[in-house]
Protein 1
Amino acid sequence: MKELEARIKEDARVLGADILKVDSFLNHQIDPKLMQAMGAEFARLFKDQGITKVITVEASGIAPAVMAGLNLDVPVVFARKSKSRILSDDAYTADVYSYTKQSTNQIRIDKRFLSADDNVLLIDDFLANGQALLGMKALADDAGATIVGAGIVIEKSFQPGRQAAIEAGLTNIHSLAKIDAFEDGQVVFDEAD
Ligand code: 5GP
């Protein structure tokens, strides 16, 4: 998505070897118009696939997921994160390891909001090592829901997330911007989906 790539070029900053800081428009300060355009693009990519619900993980996935849900006209459910290891009968839970934060969170969705009748679209802000996506997949699988696909705002193609997702049986992954490499602090893009 050209508009997103242009914004990344203009406003994102490369931190260290593999982190992109996008807090001026995506995950701290949010640009609603860009978010709306991304929601429309997700809706275009996943239209006519019988999606009944959009699933994401708090906090950074919520804005793009809400815009996708708005454009697809379906509800959005965000998995809550907690450090708590207390298992609940009323929620689907999965452990997600974050390489960026180097810690494990449990993510959970209340059983009232996900069921075997659902065809779900998974949305996240980044695809890096794939742990967040695999965690969402585990919740959907537990619920017996059908996963229609995954929509990612920014994929770092040089990290193993997509491969891990494919190996876990997750197909139909579309990323609005794909980053091939960071070279001298600059972003090198791959052809987006
Ligand atoms: P994964 O589980 O695929 O390794 O990483 C996904 C999560 O880690 C995303 O939801 C995102 O919050 C965070 N993340 C991974 N890479 C980056 C990055 O380069 N920049 C930012 N801002 N967050 C990232």
Note: Strands lie at 13-15, 19-21, 53-57, 76-82, 91-98, 103-110, 119-127, 146-156, 173-183, 186-190.
Protein 2
Amino acid sequence: MKISVIGCGYLGAVHAASMAELGHQVLGIDVDEAKVASLQRGVAPFHEPGFDDLLVKNAQRLYFTTDMAAAADAKVHFIAVGTPQSADGSADMTYVNAAIEGLIPYLSPGDLVVGKSTVPVGTAQRLSESVVSSGAILMWNPEFLREGFAVEDTLSPDRLVYGLPEGESGDAALAILDSVYELILAKQTPRLVMNFATAELVKVAANSFLATKISFINAMAEIAEVTGANVTELADAIGHDSRIGRRFLNAGIGFGGGCLPKDIRGFVARAEELGVGQSLDFLRSVDAINLRRRARVVDVVIEELGALAGKKIAVWGLAFKPDSDDIRDSPALDIVENLARAGARVIAADPQASGPARKRIEHAGLASSVTLTDDHHESARGVDAIVVATEWNVFCEEDPTAIAPLVSNKLVIDGRNTLDSKAWKAAGFTYRGMGRS
Ligand code: UGA
């Protein structure tokens, strides 16, 4: 099958390469010339495990361009552009609208347009009229991939969700997408068929649930901090109840990234527009708890060190999660900035994200108080404290006895509750976790 993928960010580029891996001829289209040139050379423009290999392995079936006219050759067109957060919290639909408008002149009757972007409920219905007037069919097929596992999640998803129009065109869309995903469906992947609105809601509901789970455990961390309880032991204990489950109950500095934070805010904004804002009032609390965690870490540092002016602090982690160089809404980067604003000299280390972080630190006017490096050993030299903000394996597995001689004061603040506290204490460190007395 000839496929176009419009939008080549984390979602679109991985989707394009994965569709090629399934044996399709794939054309990736993006307005960003540098990104397209990099992908066309077989070089991933971002860090995502396994993605480079997929690009190289499938180079014969993959082509990247900035020219939307090239989409005329394809029968199935995936819309995978971003829906960033607008100033009022709602999802900015500029790129989705532009992608559909740009694509329409190149559609042929019987083509299938498949929306993958995360959109406010009602979007597919709104866009379908213009797609249908060109003789094509529109459907929505939300994506649930996690950064760091994007390739695996695309090729072996937990489930496939098809949001279909009613009637014959829905049947036709289903048959076409089934043939695109034939090899995935052959692995007994559950495929759930529903209407547009349900499919759109499934995506934001899933991200809202995950965000709620994380903020729930972080709220418990706040209680644990004033009662002498230990939130990790609490999470282990409640997680044994299979109705609750242990996953996404890791307390710490909270969630970030390009999805969870903006999706809950976009969902709240959409519910307000629909007159049911009250239904999602709890998501405002989820957001507020999450943002408090970033401030809490700075408070813990101040509790231990007093005023931060003149203090030197290493922050381990800049990316919003390990195995990614994505710094969008990263709690780690916010903490770096807040420590620097409080007067500290910060040396921040991340194996992948120090390059992407540099621009933001410069933009924030903090280049003179923040040093960025890939090397966490280097960052620890002569510091008064180490703050672990992203749980990269290299940090979690670090031998504290190798770090002890480097620092000038043995204090470690484990923002992700990920270190072996006993080993760090045995090496002479004062250990502070999150949600523990
Ligand atoms: C999230 C969803 O998990 C995906 O299913 C979804 O497809 C994606 O958004 C999207 O909408 O595109 P992702 O943003 O890659 O994926 O990251 P997550 O693995 O969900 O982690 C989000 C944040 O939560 C990270 O900052 C992570 O450190 C934090 N987190 C996660 C916690 O603080 N505690 C936990 O227990 C789990």
Note: The two ends are 58 Å apart (CA to CA).
